[in-house]
Design a protein that fits this description.
- This protein is α/β, with parallel strands linked by helices.
- Helix content is 32%, strand content 24%.
- It has 7 domains: 2-106, PriA, 3(prime) DNA-binding domain (GIY-YIG endonuclease); 110-167, no CATH class; 175-240; 261-439, P-loop containing nucleotide triphosphate hydrolases (Rossmann fold); 450-494 and 554-693, 3-Layer(aba) Sandwich (Rossmann fold), CATH 3.40.50.300; 498-552, no CATH class; 700-790, Ribosomal protein S10 (Alpha-Beta Plaits, 2-Layer Sandwich), CATH 3.30.70.
- It is globular and about 90 Å long.
- A hairpin with a 2-residue loop joins strand 3 (35-40) and strand 4 (43-53).
- Residues 273-439 form the Helicase ATP-binding domain.
- This is Replication restart protein PriA.
Length: 796
C-alpha cells in the first residue's frame, strides 16, 4: 500500500504529494486525513495522508515512520476544503490543512544524539557524555562538548553516534484519578479502622468517583484512601477529562421567547431552508436591538430537531462571553466554544468534543468555521461586516467564503447577520444573490437612540482644549446623578498617539518600522504597536537635546486619567488590549460593569458590539475621525459601521438612549447618516463613490506586498512583478503600482505593493501562483518575501 503525503515543509518544492510505503503495522491506521511522521531527507517530519494507492512511479520508497492518529483528523470534506483554500488564497496546501487544526495538534521537533557503538569504543569525551544515557538532547550534547565539537562531528560522520529527530505533540490529554470500591465486604475491614470503613461504605454508594471529590465529600484524607487501596478494598485508575472553560459557572437554563410578527416573518424562510435541506445564502439586516440573537437561537433549535449540527461565528473574544452564556443557557452541554481566549489545552478539548460528536453546536471566532462537523444544518455569521473574519496571515481566507463553501457541500443555509452589513454583502442581497431579510425596528418598538454630532473645531474656538466637549461632560454628569451608566469609545489604546519635540519637530519613531511610537503611561515607555519594540520614555529630544518633549493625541489611558480629574466620583472600567491580556479578563470586566461596579465603560473597538446592558443610556464617541482619514477606500464604511454599532449600545431596555459623537469633520456623510440611523442612504452614497473609483463590489481586487531587508532588492523585485502582471493579465484588468506601502517598513523589512483590479480574470490564480513559486524558487535571494491577498480588507 502506498500513501500519498503532503509534508509539513511550506516551500514551492514540497507543495506536491510524496509517495511513502505503508508498513504492515500501520495499514489499519494510514487513512486519508491522518497525520503521519515520515522521513524527509535527514529529518523526520509531520505530513498529512491525502490519498492511498496500490502503485507508485517512484522506484525506491521510504516507509512511513509512524501514524499519529488512530482516526483521521481531517475528513474527506476538509481535505477537499484544504485544496480549495490553497487554490483560492494562493498558499501551500500544508498551510491550509494546518489552519483547520487546533494548535495542540501541531507537532514540534527536537533533535537528539543517540549512541550506536559500544561505550568503550567511543573517545573519552563521548564516553562521559553517554555514561548515564544512550540518548542525549542535541542542545545538551552541544553545550557539554563545547571543546570537542569536531570530535562529535567525526563520530556522526563515522556513524558511531547518530542524530535522531524526535517529534512530539504540543497538546496533552488531561487526566484525573478515579476511585471505586472493589467487590468486598465492609466486615473484612478491622473495626478499629473506623475511617477506612466509612470511606469504603461511601465509595460503595457513590463510586466510581473522582478521587479529589471523594476525599472532599467524605471529609477524609489521602492516607486513609491509600490504606484501603493497599489492602485491596479500592482501586484508582487514570481517566481522561476535558478542560472546561466554563467549569466554575452556574448558567441557569432559558426558554425560547415569543417572537414578534417581524421576527416570525424573518425566521420562516430560514426554517424552510433547514427543513428542506436547501443551501441558500441569507442576509439578515436588523437594526441594533431588533432581536437577531433570538432568531439565531430558534433557528439552531430547529436544526437540532432535525438531528443536525450548527455553527455560530462571532467576530471578537469580547462578544463571546455574552453570546456563549445565552447559547449555554438554551442548549446546555451541546455547545462547544472555540476562540483565541482559551488555552491551547482547552481549545484541544473543545475540538475533540466536536470531533467525537459529543456536541451539536459550536460558538466561536473565525477559525471555528473549520469545526470537524460532518452533518451541518446551519451556519450563522453574526456581525458579518467585521474585518476580523478575514485572516491576515497565510492562508488569507475570509470566514464568510469558507462558510458558503461548507454550506453548499452540506446543503445547509448560511445566515449572515448585521445592523450594518458590508457594502459587498448588501449589494449581493439587492441583486438577489443573497436573500434579504429585514428587521427595521427594535423589540417592543423601543426607539433608536438620539444622536448629536459635536463640532470639535467650535469647541477649540471657544477655548475648550479638553478631549471632552461641554455637551458630553454635562451628559456624563447627568448620568452619574441619575445612577445610569455610560460608554465612552476611543479607538486608540495607550496614553498618547505620539511624542514630539516642540523645539525641532522630531517625532520619536520605531527604529525597526516607519511608524511613530505610542506612549504608555504604565511603565513610562514608548511602544511600537507593529513590531512590539519598547523603549523608555526619553527625558530630552534625541535630535536637539531640548527638554520640550511633549505628548500629542490621546489614548485610552490618557482619557482615563482625564476622567479621574474631571469626574472624581465616577468609577471607570477601561477595556483595551492592555487591560484584557490576562485570560478571562474580558469576561471579568464586562461582568463587573453589568453588576453596576462602574459608572463608565471606556474602551476601544472591543466595546462597540454585542454589549447588552439595560442601564446604559449614554454613548460618547471621543474622536469619530480616527479611521476616516486612513488611505483605504473602505474607511468611510468602517467609520459608519463602528459609529452605528457603538451607538446601538444605548437605550436597549426601558430607559431612553442618547449618543454624542465628537468630530473634527462633522459634515462627512458617514457621520451625518449615523444621526438618522439610515443605512440604506449610506449604502446608496457609498455605491455611487465606489462606482466612480472602480472599487468593490463593482471590481474585485488583489494585493501583492513585496518585502526585503534591502531597499534596492525590494524595488527591483516589485518592478519585475508589476511588469509580469501587466504583460500576463487581460487588457481590461488594471495593475496599479509598484508603490511604497502606506507603512514603508515593518520589522526592518522594506515594503512595496501592487494592486490588481479586475472584473473577470480567469487566469488570475494561475498567474499569482506562478509569481509566488518563481520568487520562492529564487535561490539568489532568500530574504525576499511576497505575500498575496486576494480580496484584501486592509491595504496598510
Amino acid at each position: 500500500m502506498i500513501a500519498r503525503v503532503i509534508v509539513d515543509v511550506p516551500t514551492a518544492q514540497t507543495d506536491r504529494l510524496f509517495d511513502y510505503e505503508v508498513p504492515h503495522e500501520w495499514r489499519a491506521f494510514a487513512r486519508p486525513g491522518a497525520r503521519v511522521i515520515v522521513p524527509f531527507g535527514p529529518r523526520r517530519i509531520q505530513g498529512f495522508v491525502v490519498a492511498l494507492e496500490q502503485t507508485s512511479e517512484a522506484t525506491k520508497l521510504k516507509p512511513i515512520s509512524e501514524v499519529l492518529d488512530p482516526l483521521p483528523v481531517l475528513s474527506e470534506e476538509l481535505l477537499e476544503l484544504g485544496d480549495w483554500l490553497a487554490k483560492t488564497t494562493v498558499c501551500y496546501k500544508v498551510k491550509a490543512f494546518s489552519a483547520m487544526l487546533p494548535a495542540a495538534l501541531k507537532t514540534k521537533v527536537s533533535k537528539q544524539v543517540e549512541r550506536k557503538a559500544a561505550l568503550d569504543l567511543l573517545p573519552l569525551p563521548l564516553q562521559t557524555l553517554f555514561a548515564d544515557h544512550d540518548v542525549v538532547p542535541w542542545e545538551e550534547a552541544r553545550s557539554l562538548m563545547k571543546q570537542d565539537l569536531s570530535l562529535l562531528k567525526t563520530a556522526l560522520d563515522e556513524g558511531v553516534v547518530s542524530l535522531v529527530y524526535k517529534v512530539t505533540e504540543k497538546g496533552a490529554k488531561k487526566t484525573a484519578r478515579l476511585v471505586q470500591a472493589l467487590p468486598k465486604q465492609v466486615e473484612d475491614i478491622p473495626e478499629r479502622a473506623k475511617k477506612q470503613r466509612e470511606l469504603f461504605c461511601y465509595l460503595q454508594e457513590n463510586g466510581p468517583i473522582l478521587t479529589k471529590d471523594a476525599l472532599q465529600q467524605s471529609k477524609t484524607t489521602r492516607a486513609i484512601l491509600k490504606a484501603l487501596i493497599e489492602k485491596g478494598f479500592a482501586k484508582e485508575t487514570d481517566v481522561e477529562v476535558y478542560r472546561d472553560p466554563l467549569q466554575h459557572e452556574q448558567i441557569p437554563p432559558s426558554a425560547p421567547l415569543e417572537l414578534t410578527p417581524a421576527q416570525a416573518a424573518v425566521i420562516a424562510p430560514i426554517e424552510a431552508a433547514i427543513e428542506n435541506g436547501h443551501h441558500e445564502a441569507m442576509l439578515l439586516h436588523g437594526v441594533t436591538g431588533s432581536g437577531k440573537t433570538e432568531i439565531y437561537l430558534q433557528a439552531i433549535a430547529k436544526v437540532l430537531e432535525k438531528g443536525k449540527e450548527a455553527m455560530m461565528l462571532v467576530p471578537e473574544i469580547s462578544l463571546t462571553p455574552q453570546m456563549v452564556t445565552r447559547f449555554k443557557a438554551r442548549f446546555g452541554d451541546l455547545v462547544a466554544i472555540m476562540h483565541s481566549g482559551l488555552s491551547s489545552g482547552e481549545k484541544y478539548d473543545e475540538w475533540r468534543k466536536i470531533y467525537r460528536k459529543e456536541v451539536k453546536v459550536v460558538v466561536g471566532a473565525r477559525s471555528a468555521v473549520f469545526a470537524p462537523f460532518t452533518n451541518i444544518g446551519l451556519i450563522i455569521i453574526d456581525e458579518e461586516h467585521e474585518a476580523s473574519y478575514k485572516q491576515e496571515e497565510t492562508p488569507r481566507y475570509h470566514a464568510k467564503d469558507v462558510a458558503l463553501y461548507r454550506g453548499r457541500k452540506h446543503k445547509a443555509p448560511v445566515l449572515l447577520g448585521s445592523a450594518t452589513p458590508s457594502v459587498e454583502s448588501f449589494a449581493r442581497a439587492k441583486k438577489g444573490v443573497y436573500r434579504l431579510l429585514s428587521l427595521r425596528e427594535r423589540i417592543k418598538g423601543r426607539p433608536l437612540p438620539e444622536v448629536d454630532v459635536v463640532d470639535m473645531r467650535e469647541e477649540l474656538r471657544r477655548g475648550n482644549r479638553s478631549m471632552f466637549s461641554g455637551q458630553l461632560l454635562q451628559a456624563l454628569q447627568a448620568r452619574l446623578e441619575r445612577n445610569e451608566q455610560s460608554v465612552l469609545f476611543l479607538n486608540r489604546r495607550g496614553y498618547s498617539t505620539f511624542v514630539m519635540c516642540r523645539d525641532c519637530g522630531y517625532v520619536a519613531s520605531c527604529s525597526h518600522c516607519d511608524i511613530s511610537y505610542t506612549y504608555h503611561r504604565a511603565g513610562n515607555s514608548l511602544k511600537c504597536h507593529y513590531c512590539g519594540d519598547e523603549q523608555p520614555m526619553p527625558k530630552t529630544c534625541a535630535e536637539c537635546g531640548s527638554y520640550h518633549i511633549r505628548f500629542f493625541g490621546s489614548g485610552t489611558q490618557k482619557v482615563e486619567e482625564e476622567l479621574a480629574r474631571l469626574l472624581p466620583e465616577a468609577k471607570v472600567i477601561r477595556m483595551d488590549v492592555d487591560t484584557t491580556r490576562k485570560k478571562g479578563a474580558h469576561k471579568q470586566l464586562l461582568e463587573a460593569f453589568g453588576k453596576g461596579d462602574a459608572d463608565i465603560l471606556l474602551g476601544t473597538q472591543m466595546i462597540a458590539k454585542g454589549l447588552d446592558f439595560p442601564r446604559i443610556t449614554l454613548v460618547g464617541v471621543l474622536t469619530a475621525d480616527t479611521m476616516l482619514h486612513i488611505p483605504d477606500f473602505r474607511s468611510a464604511e468602517r467609520t459608519f459601521q463602528l459609529l452605528e454599532q457603538v451607538a446601538g449600545r444605548a437605550g436597549r431596555d426601558q430607559l431612553k438612549g442618547e449618543v454624542i459623537i465628537q468630530s473634527y469633520t462633522p459634515d462627512h456623510y458617514s457621520i451625518q447618516l449615523v444621526k438618522s440611523h439610515d443605512y440604506e442612504q449610506f449604502f446608496a452614497k457609498e455605491m455611487q463613490l465606489r462606482k466612480q473609483g472602480s472599487y468593490p463590489p463593482y471590481y474585485y481586487m488583489a494585493l501583492l506586498t513585496i518585502s526585503d531587508t534591502e531597499l534596492a532588492s525590494t524595488i527591483s523585485a516589485a518592478q519585475k512583478v508589476a511588469r509580469y502582471l501587466k504583460e500576463s493579465l487581460n487588457e481590461e484588468t488594471v495593475v496599479l503600482g509598484p508603490v511604497v506601502s502606506p507603512i514603508a517598513r515593518i520589522k526592518d523589512r522594506y515594503r512595496y505593493q501592487c494592486v490588481i483590479k479586475y472584473r473577470h480574470e480567469p487566469k488570475l490564480q494561475e498567474i499569482l501562483d506562478t509569481v509566488m513559486r518563481h520568487y520562492l524558487r529564487d535561490a539568489t535571494n532568500k530574504k525576499l518575501q511576497i505575500s498575496i491577498d486576494v480580496n484584501p480588507h486592509f491595504f496598510m
